[in-house]
Amino acid sequence: MRSNTAVKSKSPIEDKTSYLKAIGPGLLFAGSAVGVSHLVQSTRAGAMYGFGLVVFIAIAFLVKYPGFSFAPRYAVATGKSVLSSYRRQGFFALSFYVLASLFTMFIGAAANLLVTAGLVNAVLGIDANVLLVSVVVSTVGGSLLVLGHYHWLDQVVRVLIAFLTVATFSAAVVALPMIQWDVSGVWQPTNYDMATLLFIAALIGWMPTPSDVSVWQSQWIVAKIRDTGHTPNQREAKMDFHIGYIATLILALCFLILGAAVMHGSGQRFEGGAVEFAAQVIGLYENALGKWSGAAVGFSALAVMFSTFITILDGFPRGLANFMLMLKGYEEGVSDNPRIEILRQRFYWSLIVLLIIGSLLILSFFLNSLKQLVDFAATVSFLAAPVFALLNHRAIFSEEVPKEARPGKSLLLWSYGSMVLLSSFAIGYIYLVFVR
């Protein structure tokens, strides 16, 4: 804790600089979240149910907050990702992360590639083969990571998230007067049929983002420390995390408002094809802000979907590469060990190639099934959420974390309550779908 004490003695200018150096992993979290979960799921929620699912979006953010917040706290306290704690927790914890990643990584990457490729066609006004565009997008994303590593990932996502936040918030403000409150202003679904329950499960599963992204958060903290040489204290890490988490909540509500204002009650439904869906999303902005906004917002949506894709392209391989290091008796940390880094890079790049090939293969079979693809992967994440909440809870309260760095009693109780609710949701879903 000596480093935390030293921070308090800094001058205001030094303290501000220290905070700026800490910002990054939280925005990468937002970059990974503000993709399909927001652009697709939140907009669909508004279009189909008006404001009926707002409470479920709020619940998703509340119950997932402890698990997500514990990951960066653990990384700052120990200098390692929470994957290190999973290893200490035993075979089940580490294998569960690996299986969950393998189960969702190809579908998640494929869904984001599909929307990104659709936006490319819609924004540029072309009719190129979506699979071919996806190959180009994945090649560009992979090249960016090859050339810039973590540093470029960090810098590019900062700009893209800031741009889309301003554009989306502006569109939502303008769209609010367009809402027909007598139709859209119901604050819960009028009918909890099976289709609604399945969609709520998918919405919560990827809202704000799948729970395994907490592992990525902690790894980005470690990479940030190596990249800048600055080790943040707990206060700086929490500030960085809260910036990203609050931004994802605001954007989720903005996309829901746009869907409710433009499509709910109109009889329109989102198309299943990527290009058609992308054109409809751009149309939401044009209807709210005017025809002039279509190109600007289309490019910003494309940019953010691309940023989501590259965070996925980095996150899954980074986590699995560290797992493979652990199998050989090593693990990634803030110290720069050349032998470990060479081995990690070898695994990392091999896994990126595998992820690109696998996601393109999935796209070749499901080009016109975007919604089904997203709902399936999101439901898997929904069922996995209580397990990740438990693993991260055990990580932050483990012996390797100093007592001063552990959460207080209020967050401890919040975490217990969240685990109970997430488990209840999952058990209820299994009963309704598989038992009843």
Fourth-level CATH superfamily: Sodium/glucose cotransporter
In DSSP terms, counting alpha (H) and pi (I) runs of 4 or more, how many helices? 17
**Level-1 CATH class name:** Mainly Alpha
Q: Can you summarize the main beta sheet? A: none
Number of strands: 0
Helix content: over 70%
Q: List low-pLDDT spans.
A: 1-14
User: Please, how many domains?
Assistant: 1
Structural class from helices and strands? mainly alpha
Shape: globular
Give me the Rg, rounded.
21 Å
- What is the mean pLDDT? 82
Could you tell me how far the N terminus lies from the C terminus, measured between alpha carbons in angstroms? 53 Å
Q: In percent, how much strand structure appears in the residues?
A: under 5%
Structural overview:
The protein has helices spanning 2-8, 12-22, 25-33, 36-49, 54-78, 82-89, 91-124, 130-175, 181-184, 194-205, 213-228, 234-262, 274-289, 293-327, 338-365, 370-396, 409-435. By secondary structure, the chain is mainly α. It has one domain: Sodium/glucose cotransporter. α7 runs antiparallel to α16. The longest helix has 46 residues, at 130-175. The chain is globular, with a radius of gyration of 21 Å.
Secondary-structure map with pairings?
Elements: H1 2-8, H2 12-22, H3 25-33, H4 36-49, H5 54-78, H6 82-89, H7 91-124, H8 130-175, H9 181-184, H10 194-205, H11 213-228, H12 234-262, H13 274-289, H14 293-327, H15 338-365, H16 370-396, H17 409-435
Helix pairs in contact: 3-8, 3-11, 3-12, 3-14, 4-12, 5-10, 5-11, 5-12, 5-16, 5-17, 6-7, 6-16, 7-8, 7-13, 7-14, 7-15, 7-16, 8-12, 8-13, 8-14, 8-15, 10-16, 10-17, 11-14, 12-13, 13-14, 14-15, 16-17
